[in-house]
Batch of 4 targets.
Target 1
Amino acid sequence: MEPRDSDEKRPLVVVISGPSGVGKDAIISQMKKLAVPGRYIVTATTRPKRPGEIDGRDYCFFDQVEFDRMIEAGQLLEHACVYGNYYGVPLPPVEAAIKKGSDVFIKVDVQGAETIKSKLPGSLLIFIAPPSYEELKRRLEKRLTESAEALKRRLNAAAEEMKKLPFFNHSVVNDRIDMVVADIIDIVAEEKRRRSG
């Protein structure tokens, strides 16, 4: 399953990560709109659907029993309990994409990125950073999906997650979605050139 650094024909596993509210979903959505080639893995979760979300497009929604069954069957590349809900990266579509030679884009939290790197050392980890702590707070407040206590927890977690930045191969500040996506495309292209050289 692991892409080998020495073989440029092998696909890249690209992990997009960063604090909650930094815009990971919007970035992935824009990459899909621009038809950036690759397989976009939809995260599995036990959290309730937010307004406007579609099962299988935004997330794959499962109850706890189904999620536990996937863990036991070894069907998740990584999983974790975050803010009281479980999230995980389904393994079968990752393996299928790699087998077909497609790059894989995975969106996870910082903890998930660390787990994936430990299992797939050749993964390319990109940290999405907010322009500032204040801007991150504004984005989370604007989302209106958090209680005051949950918002505080997420902001405290974000401060800790920012300390993990050196663990990542690259970091990109999300000031404008179009610029972030352009940066990610450039990073992936440069990594492919590096690995083929």
Target 2
Amino acid sequence: MRILVPFEAADPKTRLDVVLDADERDGVARAMLRDVLRACLNAGHDPEVVATAPVEVDDAPVTVDDRPLSAAVNARLGGTAPLGVVVADLALATPEAVDCLVDAAADADVAIAPGRGGGTNGLVIDHRDFRVDFHGASYRDHVAAARDVDADLAVVDSMRLSTDVDEPADIVEVLLHGEGEAAAWLGERFELDAGEGRVGVDRVG
């Protein structure tokens, strides 16, 4: 299956600026992108990066599209074949998790993997009239959009697909559960702080 992987190439991961400088944010964003691409490829799919600016990757073709995410994705919908969308900051993504998303679409017009906090981290769309809207509480909006066009909907309950890395607290999940390049990158710079209460992270050194 063709899977779009949208990527903010110009100024990624701005909400991590309290713990990472601009070069570091760029580094971890690209590491997560490569992890996602490998997960899609190893699951037997055909990922394509849709980036806001040129970016070099070895594992997939890159199309530059500086429009907002929703517009860039919607411009590629409406064909006769199912289309997947997987966001680029899923540092815990595995081939098995990607397959769960794709398999859920076998009996549905739209399969959706919610993100924590109301977002949408993955979609498989096989309905000519369905369109995406990634702003705000996009999971709720995508459920409503599917109903509006009478599309059968499947929801994928996956910790690995729900964990996108936007906030410093998300780094904890990557250090605990990650096995890819982004986990190794973050592990060189952060360590878990398992004191009293909720687990956090500290900079190394």
Target 3
Amino acid sequence: MPRLLLIEDNQHIQRIFRERLQREGFQVATADDGEQGLQRAQELHPDLILLDIMLPKLDGFQVLKHLREDAALASIPVFMLTNRGTSNDVQLARALGALHFFTKGSSALHDVVWQIRHDCGFKKALICTRNAEAAAPITGALEHPRLLCSVVTALADTIGTAERGSPDVIVLDARPPATNASTALQQLKSTSATKSQPVIVIHDAGQPFNHADALVDSARITTDLRPAVMKLLGLDEVEAAAESNAESVTASA
């Protein structure tokens, strides 16, 4: 799961972005001022940083400058999020190495997430299942530093969520008591906005899903789902292993 550090002093905005980003599949840490943001970046080494400009103690430009001067943090992608959107602010952010500049109030959360995915090369899996408990083994099997897992718990909402979220792969959980998974699959494959999105169906033996791009037996989620998704999305297992080793070293330090 990609780790995102949100440095934002406005608690209302921080809460809105944290909740939305978590739903999108990010592991979100927060900081309330520039100094705390730098400290958290040093502690966590996040995969990306979403950084406000107008912050207590150190402003966003100062934070970005410190990040770029620290060899251990210099390569972390940084996206600016601010009420200040003058051309000078944008130019300075770019000069200091920010990848993108979002203006509060005019940048929709959907667009922010899409831009982050695009610039950082993250893939997204939309998991359609009946509840959070059923989703847990699926998201657990797909844990990867470059893969976002978003969950929808009503098959009837699958089409709309897939259209808005533009996932790279859809994992459709057809295990009983799901009763309309076949209909959802047919709709996905016949709707113009979603028909090109690959669908992997988790099913019990004997359940026919002729239009699925891949099938995974429900008894083999922990062994067969991950290789199918990794191959489909071109994700590197070596990268996942390196991430796991780095976390183990950090935990033991």
Target 4
Amino acid sequence: MKATALEALTREIESCRKCPRLVAWRESVAADPPRRYRGERYWARPLPGFGDPHARVVVVGLAPAAHGGNRTGRIFTGDRSGDWLFASLHRTGFGNQPRSEHRDDGLRLRGGYVTAVVRCAPPANRPTTTERDTCLPYLARELTLLSQARVLVALGSFAWDGALLALRSNGVATPRPKPRFGHGVEATVGPYTLLGCFHPSQQNTFTGKLTRARALAGPAFPGF
């Protein structure tokens, strides 16, 4: 029943055209890709979450990358951020393989689920507040269906705020004042533990802001 409900939500997300700016951007990127991806057929649609319907841990990102998930059709797949994320999930026993290159590469998650606040690739990786709020009900509904989840890992401050908003819309009492995002910060939000982690973008991993050693220092979820 749970898997069926998630599949129905997946179909709804994949057909969404509610944000004109995001629709135009995701499709224009697909129509004129960089040389390294010429000849590939881009997904160029919104992306649902991915993983185990019985997940205990949900990883929440910002949005798909223009030439990552928007190209491959699976969240965090086919870009450097995904390379880092799925390697971490593999090290901590949530993934059956350390890399994810395309939606049919055999990757399976056990006990984990990966999703995002916004489901279309935004220009400059910056969704507007209106776009976030328009998309947020999808995350809220996913969290309702993922009834065994008790840990939310927010990759960056945008995901942190989005997760709190989604929980509040689900009727979960959120702390006041709002907990501030930080790497390794934990907040108890109703039955959930919300964990903050720097986003594994190249901006953070290439500059050393996020390293494997620092990621492994997380108190409640080693590996991030």
